[in-house]
TrEMBL record:
Keywords carried by this UniProt record: Repeat, WD repeat
WD repeats: 1-26
Designated name of the protein: Uncharacterized protein
Keyword Repressor in annotation: no
Species name: Nymphaea colorata (pocket water lily)
Coiled-coil positions: none
Cross-referenced Gene3D superfamilies: YVTN repeat-like/Quinoprotein amine dehydrogenase (2.130.10.10)
Keyword Magnesium set for record: no
Amino acid sequence: DPQVVTGSHDTTVKFWDLAAGNSHSVTLCL
């Protein structure tokens, strides 16, 4: 059940989303 791991999964998604966002922003700045 996805709801069982919502907490850790949400944190992981936010982490990678932030990492991807930072990488994308850095690429755009360069």
